[in-house]
Amino acid sequence: MYNPYIVGKQIYLRHPTEEDVRGKWHEWFSDEETTKYLESRFWPNSKESQLAFYNSLQMDRNKLVLSIVMLSSDEHFGVISLNNINWVHRFGDIGIVIGEKTYCNGVYAIEAYSLILKIAFLRLNLLNVKAGYCVANKSSGAILELFKFKTVGMYKKLFMVDGKKEDCVVNYLDKETWLNRNS
Amino acid sequence: MDSNVEERIRNVMSAVFDMPVDEIDEYSSPDNIESWDSINHMKIVIALEEEFNVQFTDSDIIELINVKLIMAVLCQKRLGNIL
């Protein structure tokens, strides 16, 4: 285990390293299936562009990006983040990419969500975590429902996915609800 | 009493995964049930909450990945003596 930020049952989250980015990271963001619902898919991707992104993280206190790593093998297989953190209103947007397909069954994403929600509410003292997902992305919807995110709206036909207009579902989870479930 | 709990858990999993109860053993997990994804994990959690009238925490949710562990979580919630 290297430099853990938070440790779970099967995984831990840590600050990304340059080795992570030079490893498979940039390939994940070129993979059509992995990026199907990501905005980043529209632009060419490279190791250099991902390294530039990685370097931009060092001074960015409005974004927390963490590598998802297996406890048993130290294999880095995904990235989870809190983006657009607003320190006045104390909210942030959650996002996740499971890059290695061996780990795409949902179980590891669920654990990563549980860990970053703990970070969001207990360590960063955020009051709300927001999440938006394309309605066709049923796995994301299931995970948010599992953690009791509330659906508060929908942007009709906001996203273009595979040439088809898709709705965007808007969700949030407030700290009080999270604490009530987890205390 | 435990066997009754185990049977109820297996029935829940059987319904969610649409597979015969006798094909589910205490070690059935995401490693050996192909359809065990985030959607079906959510269905299992919700079905178990209804079946046993409990509410799982985030820590519980990540433990619920086979019959044996589900039973352990339910026992931790001190439900064993009233089930």
Which H/E pattern describes the elements of chain A?
EEHHEEEHEHEEH
CATH fold-level label of chain B: Non-ribosomal Peptide Synthetase Peptidyl Carrier Protein, Chain A
As a percent range, the share of helical residues of chain A equals 25-40%
- Rg calculated over all Cα atoms of chain A: 16 Å
Helix-strand category of chain B? mainly alpha
Average of the residue pLDDT scores of chain B = 88
- As a percent range, the share of helical residues of chain B equals 55-70%
What can be said about this structure in brief?
Chain A is of the alpha+beta class.
What's the SSE blueprint?
The complex is a heterodimer of chains A (183) and B (83).
Chain A: E1 4-7, E2 11-14, H1 18-28, H2 47-57, E3 64-70, E4 76-86, E5 91-98, H3 107-123, E6 128-134, H4 138-146, E7 150-161, E8 164-174, H5 175-182
Parallel strand pairs in A: 5-6
Antiparallel strand pairs in A: 1-2, 2-3, 3-4, 4-5, 6-8, 7-8
Chain B: H1 2-17, H2 38-52, H3 58-63, H4 67-76
Task: Explain what this protein looks like in three dimensions.
The complex is a heterodimer of chains A (183) and B (83). The two termini of chain A are 28 Å apart. In chain A, α1 packs across α2 (47-57). The mean pLDDT of chain A is 92. Chain A is built from five helices and eight strands. Chain A has a single domain (4-182), classed as Gcn5-related N-acetyltransferase (GNAT) (Aminopeptidase). Chain A is globular and about 40 Å long. Chain A is an alpha+beta fold and 183 residues long. With 83 residues, chain B is an all-alpha fold. Chain B has a single domain, classed as Non-ribosomal Peptide Synthetase Peptidyl Carrier Protein, Chain A, CATH 1.10.1200. Chain B is built from four helices and no strands. Chain B has helices at 2-17, 38-52, 58-63, 67-76. In chain B, α1 runs antiparallel to α2 (38-52) and α1 (2-17) packs across α4. The mean pLDDT of chain B is 88.
Which key features would you list for this structure?
heterodimer, A: 183 residues, alpha+beta, Aminopeptidase, eight-stranded mixed beta sheet, 31% helix, B: 83 residues, mainly alpha, Non-ribosomal Peptide Synthetase Peptidyl Carrier Protein, Chain A, globular
